[in-house]
From TrEMBL:
PANTHER family tied to this protein: V-TYPE PROTON ATPASE SUBUNIT G3, VACUOLAR ATP SYNTHASE SUBUNIT G
Subunit structure of this chain's protein: V-ATPase is a heteromultimeric enzyme made up of two complexes: the ATP-hydrolytic V1 complex and the proton translocation V0 complex.
Keyword Lyase: no
Species name: Carya illinoinensis
Keyword presence, Transmembrane: no
Keyword annotations from UniProtKB, A to Z: Hydrogen ion transport, Ion transport, Transport
Name the UniProt record assigns to this protein: V-type proton ATPase subunit G
Length: 113
């Protein structure tokens, strides 16, 4: 009788462990999905801002056409600097998101070992 009860307890523990693994897996997948969504949102925001900068640059060029070429060149350089800073920010965002994913997966793997 004790052997039968022991097998029932073992089966309950195995079922609980499987359920716990499923919950951890679901949580990990949800977190990864949220991180990917955050990265996509950040990239979209960067793209919109870049478009805005380019439109602003074109507007300034149109406003200054006919005036000195120096002003137009200065605006062009300023805009290129802003665009370069934006690209670097986007690269950092991507690296940060990837870093968070790696840290999360490493933490989850350590929890399972």
């Amino acid at each position: 009788m004790d052997s039968f009860r022991g097998q029932g307890v073992i089966q309950m523990l195995l079922t609980a462990e499987q359920e716990a693994q499923h919950i951890v897996s679901s949580a990990r997948n949800l977190k990864i999905k949220r991180l990917k969504q955050a990265q996509e949102d950040a990239e979209r925001e960067v793209g919109l801002y870049r478009s805005h900068l380019e439109a602003e640059f074109q507007k300034k060029i149109a406003e200054t056409s006919g005036s000195s070429g120096f002003n137009a060149k200065r605006l062009e350089v300023d805009t290129e600097v802003k665009i370069q800073n934006l690209k670097e920010s986007a690269a950092r965002i991507s690296c940060d998101v990837i870093g968070m994913l790696i840290k999360h997966v490493t933490t989850v793997n350590l929890m399972h070992t």
